[in-house]
Amino acid sequence: MMKQSKTNKMGELRLMKGNEAFAEAAIRAGVDGYFGYPITPQSEVIEYLMAEKPHERTGMVVLQAESEVASINMLYGGGGSGKKVMTSSSSPGISLMQEGLSYMAGGEVPCVVANVVRGGPGLGDIQPAQSDYFQSVKGGGHGDYRLPVLAPSSVQEMSDFVPIAYELAFRYRTPVLIISDGLIGQMMEKVELFDQMPRLTDEEINELYPWATNGKPKGKKRRVITSLDLDPYKLEKHNFKLQSKYKTIEAEEVRCEIIECEDADYIIIAYGSSARISQKAIQLAREEGLKVGLLRPITLWPFPKKPINELVEKGVKGILSVEMSAGQMVEDVKLAVRERTKVEHFGRYGGVIHSPEEVLEALKNQIIGD
Amino acid sequence: MSEITIKDIIKPENIVYEKTSLMTDKSLSYCPGCGHGTTHRLVMEVLEELGQENDTIGVAPVGCSVLAYEFMNIDMQEAAHGRAPAVATAIKRLWPDKIVFTYQGDGDLAAIGTAETIHACNRGEKIVIVFINNGIYGMTGGQMAPTTLPGMKTSTSPYGRDVNSMGNPLKITELIAQLPGTYYVSRQAVHTPSAVRKAKKAIKKAFQNQLDDKPGLSFVEVVSNCNSGWKMEPVASNVWMEENMFPYYELGDIKLEGNLL
Prior knowledge:
The complex is a heterodimer.
Chain A: E1 9-17, H1 18-28, E2 33-36, H2 44-52, H3 54-57, E3 61-64, H4 68-80, E4 85-89, H5 91-96, H6 98-107, E5 111-117, H7 133-137, E6 149-150, H8 155-171, E7 175-181, H9 182-186, E8 188-194, H10 202-208, E9 224-225, H11 232-252, E10 256-259, E11 266-269, H12 272-287, E12 292-297, E13 299-301, H13 305-313, E14 318-322, H14 329-337, E15 342-346, H15 356-368
Parallel strand pairs in A: 2-3, 2-4, 4-5, 5-7, 6-7, 11-12, 11-14, 14-15
Antiparallel strand pairs in A: 1-8, 6-13, 10-12
Chain B: H1 6-9, H2 36-49, E1 56-60, H3 68-71, E2 75-78, H4 84-94, E3 99-105, H5 106-112, H6 114-122, E4 128-133, E5 136-137, E6 143-144, H7 163-166, H8 172-177, E7 182-189, H9 193-211, E8 217-223, H10 227-230, H11 234-248, E9 252-256, E10 259-260
Parallel strand pairs in B: 1-2, 1-3, 3-4, 4-8, 7-8
Antiparallel strand pairs in B: 5-6, 7-9, 9-10
Helix pairs in contact in B: 2-9, 5-6
């Protein structure tokens, strides 16, 4: 189900933190501007970019803004002018960006925003969590909108998902979220970097994105980026257009990974760090003779309803939704399953990471039973 | 001698003044008597005179001028409330050869957007900020603004602004003039023909600075009446502005070529 992006790889291997791999991928994906504000556990992104001097490598602009509010509005300006722009933050900072994301959804401004999630609510802690699922996939800001959400589960994917996110952002003129957590952001793994992609020239931007506001072309109509229309009938029409775009994304852009589900009696559904932990849990289960598979959503929105439905129709006896939250994704699993089989949630939260043994135990207690 | 008709008079060689083509034909949404329309025209005339209509991106605020993009016939973005300087920062950084400006009111620039205003000025972003100060929230129906004068009655200070509990009017323009990042700071008005001429000169200087890549931000405040919000007739509101606003918000250049005057 994983669609290939147009990147080339020449076997350039490095040992990197997830945050660093993400930052390096931004330079290599031909990003024009990064605007960010420090927050743990993702400050390595802007630190890496500042140290790398991407202006000398590709001409990329890196700016430390005065706040997350300013950062996201810098993305509005930059994305609205047709440039590839990016920010990254962690949960409390992403909350501050919701206004800007709503405006960009309304004004159809492309950009990429990474959330390296930490425990909440409030200031919470700086440990890994997955408790921003609702905020990411159900809107987050005000108004009727959705954002494509990619969930990497390795340092490799922190790099690989950057060009995919930009393809989605510009194909659908929408902000795209890359949602990881403090574990993936901070841990070091081997990563194969993709080759440097060129930044678009100003001429290419004008050719590809006639909607971009970067100076009215001679003899042509001026362009406007706005989310405002005071006429409710016109605004409803604009909303129809957005909803039809979201339907297309739901039909075309679902990504997920299915592991050992062919013969599975039971399924774990987990994304990101939880999927890594759950993969070990299904291995432990199979060692005990239990036929357990893993479905890993890569896009949290659009949610992989169809693959889940196919597993339900094949007759799986129960599904455990495992996430480092009090139970958020489980609601979407239940919507997909429609009570045709048992669905339960398991997860530690507030910055606590569950062990594979705990996941297996929960599977036995909550799903398999006696 | 044949009779002279109007057709004989309206000829290119007889035209002494025209509406700039950089203003659209859409009727302005502003109240009759308000300074916004004049200031819009001045900004657009300056851009036309400088030949920048194809190389300028404007950023509209939230407030009375939220629809500025419907009247200014150039590429425009409509920013969230107070965020125009951040929006403009990114556009200018990514398109350094283009002209970028924001057009903001007092609530937008000096209340909710204070952080964005101060930090764009402090970074010395090479943009122009045109700031309309009418001492009130006009769009939402006449509430107290950060720039509302002491004792001034608004719908949220119905007994007059009490500076002990509501604070003093914020002289944001003097404040940002202190920052090394601002290159040119001026306060103007558009209520008389002579004020309009001076304001246009200041706006032109601000854009010329950006064209010349001068180091820092150029900031022009325009003190305007809000006859609807102040609940006065237009002429009376201009008299009130001269007698009350100008003593507090003194007109003239505040900073020239990076030097405080």
